[in-house]
Amino acid sequence: MSLSSLFAATVPVLCGLIGVVLSNLPISMSGGAVPPPLLGFMAIYFWALVRPDLMPPAGAFVIGLAEDLLSGSPPGFWTASFIASYALLARQRDTFAGLAGVGAVLGFALATLVTAAAAYLIAWIYFAHIPPAAPLLLQVAVSVVCYIPALPVLNAIQHRIVGPLRSEF
Fold it and tell me: CA of 133: how far to CAs of 29, 118, 157, in Å?
């Protein structure tokens, strides 16, 4: 395996890690009124459908762990949530991958809702009381809206960096 193909093989997880860093920067255009989007999960969703060979469960685990560490959430909170959604994507890959246009955004919305539901259940168990659902649902909404401009960026990365090296994997 050449150095360039090795780099291309790490691009999906790097996209997720960069997304985690960007979403956890201490900068807010809304003054903290709106939660940050789950940019790391966007990469998991996209690459698990487009190139599942380059986004294995271990990649989702690493991205979730980075989200836990940088967001200050309890250990395993986002990691388990991202893995739960990855499991859904792995089982329903053909269905999700076949979606286009508005359907692709709705597929992402469903997967993000599964992530949020897993996070909600974990928080409920961890904190031993029912947490408010509104902040998490707002984060889902923000993530879905932000997925629309993120999708062309991820597609460009796929076509310009990973795609040309496909034959070398």
Answer: 23, 12, 34
Q: How far is CA 14 from CA 32, 86, 95, 147, 157, in A?
A: 26, 17, 26, 17, 11
CA distances from 129 to 6, 18, 19, 80 (A): 45, 33, 30, 19
State pLDDT tens for residues 39-89: 999 999 999 999 999 999 999 999 999 999 999 998 899 999 999 999 999
Separation between Cα atoms, residue 18 and residue 14, nearest integer Å: 6
User: What CA–CA distances, in Å, run from 99 to 50, 105, 112?
Assistant: 12, 8, 15
165 three-state secondary structure: helix
Task: Tell me the HSE value of 136 on the side-chain side, using a 13 A CA sphere.
Answer: 21
**pLDDT tens string 46-58:** 999 999 999 999 9
- What are the Cα distances from residue 143, in Å, to 40, 109, 169? 10, 8, 31
CB 136 within 8 A of CB 116: yes
Please state the pTM of the whole predicted model: 0.93
